[in-house]
Amino acid sequence: MNINHHQTKRDRSYFEWSDNMQIICKGNGDIAMTESELVDFFGVTWKKLNYRLQLLIKTSHLHPEERDAGELEVFVNEQLKGYAPLYPLSIIIALSFHSWTAWKLICSESTFAGKYTARQTS
After folding, report:
1. How far apart are CA 119 and CA 122, in angstroms?
2. Distance between CA atoms of residues 115 and 109, nearest Å
3. In angstroms, how far is CA 48 from the centroid of its own chain?
């Protein structure tokens, strides 16, 4: 199975991690990413990403044009098989905030749990 996404990457920009763990912007045009690119970029599961995307779209105060960046044609064996939604920079930023906040909460909970355990064993 041969899946081609490279055709539309020339028409848009997207984010990736460099070898130095820095965010780099690749491509030309407006920033927009597919769900599979977002999963790779944030290092989360499809389930977690889809939950966050649905939550953002339902509860955010973004204008309709800030929620959608069009669609990407998906080809399998050089035949059009469907379309994948593209998410604009506003959604990527909102997802980044949610990811950072969740990570910060996990770290805080771990720190508090560690302090509590240390007090109980002392």
Report:
1. 5
2. 10
3. 10
**In terms of Cα–Cα distance, which of 75, 64, 61 is closest to 3?**
75
Length, in residues, of the chain? 122
CA distances from 7 to 15, 54, 71, 115 (A): 16, 27, 13, 52
* Residue 35 burial (CB count, 10 A): 16
Residue 26, pLDDT above cutoff 60: yes
Model confidence band, residue 121 (pLDDT cutoffs 50, 70, 90): low
Rounded distance, CA 94 to CA 53, Å?
Answer: 9
| pLDDT (mean) for 66-75 | 83
Q: What is the pLDDT of residue 113?
A: 46
Looking at 2-88, list the stretches that DSSP marks H as alpha helix, in order from N- to C-terminal side.
6-9, 35-42, 46-59, 64-67
Crossing angle of helices 46-59 and 89-121, in 10° steps, is 110
The answer to whether 88 and 72 are in contact (CB under 8 A) is: no
Region label for 16, one of left (φ > 0), alpha (ψ between -120 and 50) or beta (otherwise)? beta
Question: What is the rounded average pLDDT of the residues 57-85?
Answer: 84
